[in-house]
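Anyone? Bumping this.
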Amino acid sequence: MAKFRILHASDLHFSMQPRQIAMLDDPIGLLQMRAGMYGLLAGHDPLKAAALSNLASDLRKKYDIFLITGDIATHGAREHLDVARAFITGDPTAASVAAVSGLGRPLSDEVKVAVRLLPGNHDRYTRFGLPGNREFDDCFAEFWRAGQGAQILYRGLREGQRLFVVGADFSLRAEHISSRRVLPFLDTLGQGLVDGPALRELRELTMSCRRLDAAAAIVWAIHFDPLTTSGALQLRRRRVLLRCAADLGVSAILCGHVHGYYSPSRGGHTGGAVVFRCGSTTQHFVPAKGGCNLQLIEIDVTPTGASATLRRRYHYRQGKFEHVA
Ligand SMILES: [Fe+2]
Ligand SMILES: [Fe+2]
């Protein structure tokens, strides 16, 4: 049996200034605050970012990849994305931005090479929180090349067994605004949609992995939670995705978005994928349920099948992430 491990973080929510409400200057941003969505809009806490960097370094020998499932910045404008980039890559061209935001040290080089990431809805925000911003694709080009589609994020081979991690971006696209399938305003801010190129590419890439190795473990990485029942934050047509995962023998789906974690849950179908949701790892705001966490997920692969389990969970408390039972 081969073991692979994934360090899973989500919803880092970097913003140009720490703890910033990225759309505060916008009328819609103010309305969102009034609608009780303040927490989901708050930017990063530099203390949590530093703590994440430290723990990711300390644990480096214990994981194969460090997966970040979207909302890496609070807004898709370049000035916010650049802060996230400075943290993840230590890119000197963004160092001044990092200094302004008090990031502390970025991820170490040995952690950086393990990073795999994909965008979330906030990373796709244009002005007024409308979807479809493609600035992320340029800012994180060395990590994410699929645009609003799908790509293989990791190919692992150990003791003859394989793990593939395939990521997909189900953020709304600009054309959805004029579509009657998606309601205006709040629905466009927090919802995702399973359709179009992202689903097609996710299926095709997954089937290509299966053709290469019928016994491989396959994990999907997406931003939106396919199990949430929250209307404003739902992944529309999620049942299509869950059925597809069951049909293709996907072992696990790793996601974030709702800003609270839960224990691994199986989605709707016998033999379906186990869904692992991570909370908001470095966001300033701490949700009432969930807190800021990251988690270590273990994938066991044998010639006859694969299974995914939650190995460890870490919560942020007073300057560091601590292991909790
Ligand atoms: Fe988020
Ligand atoms: Fe999100």
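Late reply, but here is one note on the structure posted above: The first helix runs from residue 27 to 34.
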